[in-house]
Design goal:
- It is a single chain.
- The chain is α+β, with helices and mostly antiparallel strands and 196 residues long.
- It has 2 domains: 94 residues, Orthogonal Bundle (Endonuclease III, domain 1), CATH 1.10.340.70; 78 residues, 2-Layer Sandwich (Nucleotidyltransferase, domain 5), CATH 3.30.420.
- It is built from 6 helices and 10 strands.
- A 4-stranded mixed β-sheet has the order 3-4-5-6, with no helix packed on it.
- A hairpin with a 5-residue loop joins strand 8 and strand 9.
- Helix 1 crosses helix 3, helix 2 packs across helix 3 and helix 5 packs across helix 6.
- It is elongated and about 85 Å long.
- Bound molecules: zinc ion (ZN).
- The site of zinc ion has 5 residues, from helix 4.
Length: 196
Amino acid sequence: MTRRPSPTGTAKVVHPLPPIHGSEHDGLLYYHGCICIPDTSDLCHRIVSLCHDTKVAGHPGCFKTLELLSQNYWWLNMSWYVGLYVSHCDLCLRTKIQCCLPSGELQPLLIPEERWDIISIDFISELPESGGYDSIMVAVDSVGKHSHFVETVTTVTTAGAANLYLRNIWKLHGLLQKVMSDCRPQFVAAFMKELY
Ligand SMILES: [Zn+2]
């Protein structure tokens, strides 16, 4: 194995070149029609720079840069090299707009007055099937941290989960005020709607 320096100076372990089914022409080695670049990061760096940093290239993203490169060049771990290069590009880091929404402020959790007023509901899914069930609905009281485990199936719907709650937990602790869950946000809204 050899070590190839990265654009940032760190090193990545690479394996010896696989058998290349290519051809040689004018002193250049071709692999599937692309010029094989020797394992010298300086040359790799210059080529990626041409496909990313120039005004014509316009600092495209990782996949677009790789697509441009792949039209003419090939080297071992090229996609890793390009990903690293683009993710460390100073101009991209300073000017590219984040696609995701900024995260909101943290909201403190309500302090419940009674036990089982606020609960969390989550599912342990895709378990080995037993008696026709392969999932467990876990309901935990936010105050006492007492919990109930109800057998169910991985494909249970929100209405089904609400029905499970009514049949197994409501009869013991009454109706709740608020639900917290790691499930998708729509789950909590639909769950509460089913209960009320
Ligand atoms: Zn860039």
